[in-house]
Amino acid sequence: MSLWILDKGAVAPLVNALRADYRVIGPQAKGPKFVFDPIEDPAQLRLDYNTTILPPKKVLQPPEERLATFSMGSEPRVAPVVEAEPTVLLGVHTCDLHAIQLLDKVFSTDYPDAHYLERRQQTIIFSIECLEPCDEHSFCKSMGTLTAGEGYDVHLTDLGLAYAADVATEAGKALLTRYGTVREATDADVRRLNEVMGAKWPRFTYRLNFDAAELPALLSMAYDHPLWDELGERCYACGACTIVCPTCYCFNVFDETNMALTEGERWRRWDSCQLDEFARVAGGENFRAARAARQRHRFMRKGKYIYEKIGELGCVGCGRCIRACIPKINIVDGFNTIHGGG
Amino acid sequence: MTTLNVNVHHVTRVEGHGSIVVDVKNGEIKECRFEVVEAPRFFEAFVRGRPYSELSHITSRICGICAVGHATASLEATEKAMGVQLTEQATLLRKLMFHGEIIDSHILHTYYLVAPDFLGAGSVIPLIETHRDAVLLALRVKKLSGDLCAIIGGRHTHPCALTVGGFTHTPGERELREIQARLVDARADMDASVDLFASLPWPEFERETEYVSLHKDDEYAFIGGTVVTSDGFSYPIEDYKQVTNEECVPFSTAKWTHHNRDAYMVGALARLNNNHDQLHPRAQAAAAKLGLRPIVTNPFLNSAAQVVEMVHCVEDSIRIIDELLSRGVQPEAPAPFKVEATEAVGSCDVPRGILFHHYVYDEDGICTRANCIIPTNQNMANLNADMKVLLPQILDRPQDEVRHLLEMLVRAYDPCISCSAHCLKVEFV
Amino acid sequence: MTTSSIYLPEMGRLVQVESMTTLEKLFTIELPGGQSLGHDPGQFVMVSVLGVGEAPISITSSPSRSNGSFELCIRRVGDVTNALHGMQAGATIGVRGPFGHGFPIEKMRGKDVLFAPGGLGLAPLRSLINQVIDERSSFGRVIVLYGAKRPNELLFRDELDEWIARDDVECHVTVDRGDETWDGHVGVITTLFPYVSINPRNTVAVTCGPPIMYRFVLMELLGKGIPETQIYLSLERRMKCGVGKCGHCQINDQYCCQEGPVFTYAQIKGVEEAL
Amino acid sequence: MDNGKPKVAFFDFACCEGCQLTVIDSLQTHLDLLDAIEIVQFREAMSEKGENYQIAFIEGSCTRQEDEERLHKIRDQADIVVALGACAHLGGINALKNLHPLEDVRKWVYGDKAAWYDTYPARPIGAVIEVDAFIPGCPIDREEFVRVVKALLLGTKPPIPDYPVCVECKLKENVCLFDLGKICLGPVTRAGCNAICPSYGAACEGCRGLIPNPNENAMKDVLAKAGLTVEEIMSRFTMFNTYQLQERMAEEE
Ligand SMILES: Cc1cc2nc3c(=O)[nH]c(=O)nc-3n(C[C@H](O)[C@H](O)[C@H](O)COP(=O)(O)OP(=O)(O)OC[C@H]3O[C@@H](n4cnc5c(N)ncnc54)[C@H](O)[C@@H]3O)c2cc1C
Ligand code: SF4
Ligand code: SF4
Ligand code: SF4
Q: Are B251 and B33 in contact (CB under 8 A)?
């Protein structure tokens, strides 16, 4: 829509101003790592972060979320809970932005999920261009998520002393101009932006040995690949890979009551297809009892099933599952193995 | 002539299993003793072969009530052995957490276990109806002390973040500030507690004995220092065996100890008797109000001394947090050290009294010998001596009352029998 | 709030609770204001006992006999089903749905229909059987082959007797192991097949039962030459949402709650996780 | 159940009583527990002793012949028996002594007086009597205890997770200890503690027992890659799980 310039020195005042009216969430340090959390002091904001432990999906689909409250007893009543508040989500990398767009699709098609959508609607996203790979595990270039053309309200690119702010929505513009001190970009700024963008690509490498668009077709032939058994041997079924994944959205639902058993709440919590009981039914039958079958299911979802459902690959190349996996199961190596020639 | 047969199996409202056995025929006392009947657990035997890094985590499981105390004493020993120098911040945090445990244990003992005796209840539960304010006060202070331990060590019972060289976690300044504000608020609860316990009709009973505790000149000693006794002795911690002189007794899984006399007493009252001058002024004022002027020789007043110590720990915690905040709290890695074959003794004065952990490590840091001497054991002989003196004085009273008074005496010692039962190793070479 | 929550149950009233066997009860449920559930045979609802949880249950009554209420036949196996079994008529439960794809009755018209339910598998099939019977003239032959482990585990015995008594339904019942009360057929369900002759091209087969039963029944049906596209199964999976989000019911790429629970054999053939 | 509340009793065997203390602590935030249940026996906190109870919470391991009789008596009385904490659930820290010959252990501690002290290898109470539910942990988690009580009141399955600690640890967005060069048993240990140790930078020690279907070989592999010797690996596992490991070894033989 329009390009603006936000001086780095103007970021802290912007954050402070936003905090008056919004919940402001951004990347900040946690020990040697980073996490998305509410910003209480602009000094906490680390737009130079590499990657976060959990993806920003946690802001839109919280790890635990109340769905309803109810009363029990002879005349039980139930009322929905849709918890959303005006939020500004700062510093979303483009891989995660692609993932959010995927979640948007999942939660708005067929049966729209008001809990997610309401929160999504009240969230304004400032994404940020990655100029360096976060580490050796990311493979965004292979997955086509190294940059983004949509899905954000404002998109920042680090020009050194200032950020270029590509404003894509009215909401973004209103926010930026009302709460921040910005100026419109000049031709020189645009030239600088192009330079920066041009220089970034070579710094990223392809890590898949093939075009990601081939994944669904490749995987449809790989159902009986020996890889799954090999992964099943190594996998703990700890679920970490799916919990940290920005495109995983499976959940469990459970009720909590008060001590007197007169009232309660219905909650949902992130769940993982890697866990033992995920596909077990009351009769005791477990439809994915083997760890190998569960690993296959994860790979298939990322490279095939989700694509078939909504037309987007279920992996955005963020590399989180690789970082999180203690036995170092690596989805890139896995995909490359399936492609052949590892 | 009185004939009395009291057998209180599994004395209640104490941590652990103990029984009182009294046998009086025609006014003559045949038997009067406190037995520890708990299953022994053999900690000293099974820590052999375990690496130094596990010792504080294993020995914390000796007692769920003084878990912080055991972990701290254990770390004192290991850190001494390995020549670790804690940072100032870590030292302050250890002290702060220790205060948390003292408050936690004392509030449990005074309100949940002792107060019902005076308020005519069998437990704290009916007091929720009859003395709701007092119970809510106790719950509030218990939560405060538990939270104080938790922000530092993760939890009070078996803290996770204590490790050789310091901590695996550092509390945030905001958490410290919040807990400090609650500690300041707790002053009112402390005042109310002093008033409440000052108004209780403590049983009249005196028996002078030797009081043993840690001592430091510059602070009320809980962690480290020297071992002192009210009979004027003083020893470095390493010479603890000159104080404890343990022996096995047939009716007890706890070993008995004695020093200058047949028996000695440890715990809050012993500390107050030996270290009254180092108490915070507010705690000294509380002691005065409770009528505790050293040397106090009524063992029932051990519970009153605990109230005084709570006041002290609340005040000193507020001070420590001030000090931490003014220094600035930074996450820091445990202090570095080199593992070598060594041996050392650590000592803390835990809620129930002085505690010793003595370890020998081989060159890989594997524990080859361990000795833990627990306060309740050290009190066992003294408690029995008290009972023998008390019983003749009350023999003419109804049997229920005799039983009740004896039970109260046991409870006054706050015996953590679960820990006393893991007694102790034979001589070191 | 802009949209209403898809996870919010409506409160329905149990108008009747009837014991069927030691494990199963039949629940008749009315929605508020007597509104109709509007289901197809083979669809399911998510049933809530607030405080305990939710469980997917097939609607066992036929849409052709709704009368402003619907029926669920529920086996007690766990938390929710136990809690339901403890409830009396008059109690209130939560209902969401109907969900999923039921049996495509339109595609069955004019054809012979062979039902082969095993055990509790009769519950979802009964809905379709009764609708077919109610619209009897638009179908060819109607065959019901029902098997249960023991005589006291047979469900809907009155209805079975009715079907047996009818001239226009061929109904055969068997038990794996008989007892003194039983003078009927003994043997697994596949031993009933020789009793009926089938015109495979013109037959639609519908089956539901425990996973092991499927294997044998399918072998029988395929052996008779019934086309894979004319064999329908209803599958059970763990379900937490019923609307294709929670992921629990996924069978490879298919969400059982959306694409299913009714599948044709052609759809799931070769899908390893399906059976 | 005269007042409609289920009567509950607490018992302890060889243990540190930290779990009972945790129960007492749960009152700080859940005083309404006392409106829902009637505690008729709780030696650590009350003098009254009621023998008419429906639910028994048992803390501690069985370590002596005489313990067995007491356990059977409790089992006979209670409708529901719950193992409270690692000692009762697994044998826990007490079972460390099972790694040494019994005679040696007794002599080591009591010298020539060893014969006075009766003891045998520590066992979880489930090895002696049937147990209806268990609350893992050393000590138990306060909130989990409350959840289990609610489930018992509601008549549902106690909500004890079957998945590993890593799940909760990741949900809390902790920095994984393996990333800090430490070694953690979280991947094979049952969750429910809200990953308290890793949340405080300390490695999971396995106090809640192994998950039902652990990949122990993967764990050993990873630990070996982290440079641990076989003894060190075993020592990690044995801290709370000696009884289970020895049982398994005996089964394999
Ligand atoms: C489409 C569909 C239709 C259905 N129709 C019917 C029907 O008409 N009638 C009917 O009775 N049932 C039907 N079911 C099955 C029914 O949904 C389950 O029996 C029900 O969900 C059980 O819920 P519950 O709360 O009673 O059991 P829960 O207590 O929730 O137990 C069930 C879950 O907990 C786990 N679990 C339970 N016990 C154990 C154990 N011992 N070990 C390990 N894990 C365990 C299982 O993983 C299982 O998923 C249907 C299922 C589906 C998917
Ligand atoms: S599958 Fe792995 S790399 Fe792909 S989006 Fe998920 S966490 Fe990132
Ligand atoms: S993170 Fe690794 S070990 Fe854990 S479930 Fe995923 S693949 Fe398995
Ligand atoms: S710290 Fe431990 S529990 Fe947490 S994710 Fe890492 S291995 Fe799992």
A: yes
Residue D219 CB–ligand 4 contact under 6 Å: no
Task: Write out the H or E segment, with its range, that includes residue B69.
Answer: helix B67-82
**For chain D, what is the domain count?**
2
Sign, Cα dihedral of B182, B184, B185, B189: positive
**Domain stop point among D154, D180, D210:** D154
**What span, in angstroms and rounded, lies between the C-alpha atoms of B356 and B350?**
10
pLDDT tens digits, one per residue of D43-100: 767 777 777 899 999 999 998 888 899 999 999 999 999 999 999 999 999 899 888 8
Please give the CATH number for the structural domain made up of B43-389. 1.10.645.10
Contact C231, C221 (CB under 8 A): yes
Distance CA A282, CA B115 (A): 51
CATH 3.20.20.100 for domain C105-234: no
Structural domain spans, chain C: 10-99, 105-234
Contact C51/A308, CB-based, under 8 Å? no
Ligand in closest contact with the CA of A239 = 3
Find, among C243, C274, C262, C263, the residue nearest to C46 by Cα. C243
Query: D72 and D125: one domain?
Result: yes
Q: Ligand 4 within 6 A of D184 CB?
A: yes
Indicate if D149 and D183 belong to the same structural domain: no
Contacts of residue A68, Cβ cutoff 8 Å, sequence gap at least 6 = A78, A79, A80, A81, A265, A266, C5, C7, C8
Report, as ranges of residue numbers, the positions in chain C whose pLDDT lies below 50. Answer: 1-2
| In the block, residue with structure tokens 């596992």 | D237
Residue C261: cis peptide before it, omega within 30 degrees of 0: yes
Domain boundary among A183, A202, A221: A202
- A312 burial (CB, 10 Å; 0-12 / 13-18 / 19+) is middle
Ligand nearest to the CA of A54: 2
DSSP tag of B364: T
CB contact under 8 A, A252 and C246: yes
Q: Which residue has the higher pLDDT, A230 or B30?
A: A230
Q: Do B44 and D109 touch (CB under 8 A)?
A: yes
Q: Give the closest residue to D46 by CA, choosing from D86, D72, D11.
A: D11
**Closest residue of D to C51, CA-based?**
D154
Instruction: Give residue B402's pLDDT.
Output: 85
**Structural domain that includes position A17:** 2-202
| Distances, alpha carbon D88 to alpha carbons B245, C257, D243, in Å | 34, 42, 11
Q: Are C78 and A277 in contact (CB under 8 A)?
A: no
Distance A241 CA to ligand 3 centre (A): 5
Atom of ligand 3 nearest to the CA of D218: 3
Count Cβ atoms below 10 Å from residue A226 Cβ, excluding itself: 10
CA-CA-CA-CA torsion sign (A249, A253, A259, A264): positive
- With pLDDT > 90 as the criterion, what percentage of chain A qualifies? 84
Whole-prediction pTM: 0.91
Among B45, B154, B158, the residue with its CB nearest the CB of D100 is B45
D30 with D82, same domain: the answer is yes
Residues A48 and A136 in one domain: yes
- Using a CB-CB cut-off of 8 Å, the residues of chain D touching A327 are 218, 221-222
Ligand that lies nearest to the alpha carbon of residue A319, given by its number in the listed order: 2
| Whether the CB of C261 sits within 6 Å of ligand 1 | yes
Is there a contact between D119 and B146 if contact means CB atoms under 8 Å apart?
no
Enumerate residues 6+ apart whose C-beta is below 8 A from A29.
A44, A46, A49
Q: Which CATH number fits domain C10-99: 2.20.25.90, 2.60.40.1470, 2.40.30.10, 2.40.50.140?
A: 2.40.30.10
Residue A33 with chain D: CB contacts under 8 Å = 175, 179
C152 inside 8 A of chain A by CB: no
